[in-house]
């Protein structure tokens, strides 16, 4: 499988230098990350919302090694929220955050991440929107869920992400499928050991459907994070079976992947939210997009060949 190889390469400084220096890299990265600054991303936000789509915004960056960098990540989100306010988009433009960016892996990281993310959640609520906590590797999840529970005491709309390939997720889904919850289900994009995660695609897909059924039959708000046409069709059928209206769940897909499908689902009346990342520290995000789907790697390699 290419995915684990690419994920391993994403942690190599040598590969980072090679990929970053390749002349074609920037044009390929732009497919997935349409800007580096708030000024560059605002026209994208206007364009997508003008097309009837919704967004979840991600300021990219994960290699946080100091409290100062964690504070800078917090401030980047606060700047984004400040700029979103005048657009009056409300919940049509929310935020996705990785707690690693807020200092979760540093000494005292749980408390530090909570202290940094709380003002972001408060600022988002002040402009009528919310925040979803992204899931990272399995060792961080107990901390993430604890922070999620704490934030929901004052801001119950705060969402979280669960990953179908982890064995623990079916139990997590049963706990989270409660009234008022917002849960994004994805397959998972980190290299996890066989002791904690399914390794084969068909096993992950089956787990995804089981977990999605739990969310659809629960009282919360499911967010289907997938580009897989088969899983999208299954999600629609599960929603119908559960008696859900079109505004009682949503689809989420990445910017730059299956854009026509984004528009098709929105035109059918579905809530379709585009996960839109921006920023200068794009390398880790870019490599995970390549790892998730072989077609993304093929796109990159074809671009290199055609450039040469």
Tell me what you see in this structure.
With about 300 residues, the chain is α/β, with parallel strands linked by helices. The chain has 13 helices and 8 strands. It has an 8-stranded parallel β-barrel, surrounded by 7 helices. α5 packs parallel to α6 and α8 runs parallel beside α9.
Keywords:
about 50% helix; about 300 residues; disordered C terminus; alpha/beta; eight-stranded parallel β-barrel
**Element-by-element helix/strand order:** HHHHEHEHEHEHEHEHEHEHH
Low-confidence segments: 303-308
Structural class: alpha/beta
- Overall number of strands: 8
Rg for CA atoms: 18 Å
Give the overall silhouette. Answer: globular
Q: What is the average of the pLDDT values?
A: 89
Content of β-strand: 5-15%
Strand order of the largest sheet: 1-2-3-4-5-6-7-8
The count of helical stretches stands at 13
In angstroms, what separates the terminal alpha carbons?
Answer: 27 Å
Helical percent range? 40-55%
Q: Mind summarizing the main beta sheet?
A: 8 strands, parallel, barrel
List the helices and strands and how they pair.
Elements: H1 2-9, H2 13-21, H3 25-32, H4 38-50, E1 54-59, H5 67-84, E2 93-97, H6 109-126, E3 131-133, H7 141-154, E4 159-163, H8 169-176, E5 182-186, H9 201-217, E6 221-225, H10 229-241, E7 250-254, H11 259-267, E8 271-278, H12 283-292, H13 294-307
Parallel strand pairs: 1-2, 1-8, 2-3, 3-4, 4-5, 5-6, 6-7, 7-8
Helix pairs in contact: 1-12, 5-6, 6-7, 8-9, 9-10, 12-13
């Amino acid at each position: 499988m290419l995915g684990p190889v690419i994920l391993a390469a994403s942690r190599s400084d040598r590969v980072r230098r090679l990929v970053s220096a390749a002349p074609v890299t920037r044009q390929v990265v732009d497919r997935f990350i349409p800007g580096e600054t708030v000024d560059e991303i605002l026209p994208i936000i206007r364009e997508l919302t003008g097309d009837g789509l919704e967004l979840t915004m991600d300021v990219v960056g994960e290699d946080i090694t100091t409290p100062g960098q964690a504070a800078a990540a917090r401030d980047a989100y606060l700047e984004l929220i400040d700029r979103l306010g005048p657009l009056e988009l409300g919940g049509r433009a929310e935020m996705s955050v990785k707690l690693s960016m807020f200092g979760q892996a540093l000494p005292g990281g749980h408390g530090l991440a909570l202290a940094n993310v709380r003002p972001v959640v408060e600022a988002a609520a002040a402009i009528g929107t919310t925040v979803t906590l992204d899931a990272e590797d399995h060792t961080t999840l107990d901390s993430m869920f604890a922070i999620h529970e704490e934030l929901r005491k004052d801001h119950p709309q705060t969402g979280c992400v669960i990953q179908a390939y982890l064995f623990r997720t079916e139990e997590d889904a049963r706990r989270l499928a409660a009234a008022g919850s917002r849960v994004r289900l994805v397959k998972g994009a980190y290299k996890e050991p066989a002791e904690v995660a399914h390794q084969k695609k068909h096993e992950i897909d089956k787990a995804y459907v089981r977990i999605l059924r739990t969310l659809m039959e629960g009282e919360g708000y499911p967010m289907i994070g997938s580009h897989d046409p088969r899983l999208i069709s299954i999600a629609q059928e599960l929603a119908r079976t559960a008696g859900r209206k079109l505004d009682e769940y949503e689809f989420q897909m990445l910017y730059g992947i299956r854009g026509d499908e984004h528009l098709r689902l929105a035109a059918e009346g579905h809530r379709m939210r585009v996960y839109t990342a921006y920023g200068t520290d794009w390398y880790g995000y870019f490599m995970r997009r390549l790892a998730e789907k072989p077609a993304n790697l093929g796109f990159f390699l074809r671009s290199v060949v055609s450039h040469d």
